[in-house]
Amino acid sequence: MKLTPSSIVQGAIALAFISFVPVSQAQDFSKVAVVDYNTILKDYYKAKDSQKQMEELAAGYQKERNEREAGLKSLVESINALQKDMQDPAISDAKKKEKENQLKSKGEEGQVKQREMMAFGQTASKILEDKRQRLTTELTEEVNKALSQIAKNKYNMVFVKPQVPSPGALIFSEGMDDITAQVLGLLNKDAPAAKKNDKKDDKK
Q1: CA 95 to chain centre
Q2: Which residues, 6 or more positions from 154, have their beta carbon under 8 angstroms from its beta carbon?
Q3: What are the sequence ranges of the domains in the chain?
Q4: Which residue, 61, 122, 131, 176, has fewest beta-carbon neighbours within 10 Å?
């Protein structure tokens, strides 16, 4: 189950632009900047932590699913072996009856395991989605707070550089200030030393 940094905040920050000043001042369009959310989500240490949390949680669920599938596969193999034994012409009636009882028991066990696997899959998906949404909300609030601090009293508008251009989206920003680095600097100023070193290594 592969998750990308952009998937953590997908849809939550699809903003066309953000306004930070009263309407009376909004006519001065010379104070316009742009920000690259994708770069922020790639280099913000908390976004990386969120990505890691999601990947570890997904990997844990995948491991348990694999173990459940292996158990069910083993049970199916046992059922097939019992059915084959029962087809032996030399099998006694008593032995055949014993095999029938075993087959019935294992068939019921298999049905239970299948229901448990379905329930497990649904529960795991819900937990993953709930966590993704919570992390998305937290990251969005933090990024927008930093963005507001950088833009306050300096820019009328801040446009978001879209990952994929769409109708009405910003596709040309020459001459506009790009405040991505400033926002990242504010977001990462309290990053643990290890995280800051990782960021330096990424630039090499």
Answers
A1: 53
A2: 31, 33
A3: 5-203
A4: 122
